[in-house]
Amino acid sequence: MLLAVAKDPTARLRDIAAVCHTTERTAQLIVSDLDKAGYLSRERDGRRTRYTLHLGGRFRHPAEAHLPVRRLLELLAHHDHDR
User: Fold this and answer.
1) Nearest in space to 54 (alpha carbons), one of 43, 33, 68
2) What is the pLDDT of residues 9-55, one digit of tens each?
3) SS3 of 45, please?
């Protein structure tokens, strides 16, 4: 989900769900969880929602707590670009 939002911060939940091969309801729940956890924030822009990623944050799991979210997205974006 984070990668889909990073690619298009103004994407509709329907579009995010399609990119992630999930339902719109599941995408809504995951985006809400990411918002509550501080990985992103949402702001209404007219009829659309604009997402802002907070890439300086760290993962919550102790095994990855030393890694910034930015690093994971860089790896995923690079891998996706190579395809």
Assistant:
1) 68
2) 999 999 999 999 999 999 999 999 999 989 999 999 899 999 999 98
3) strand
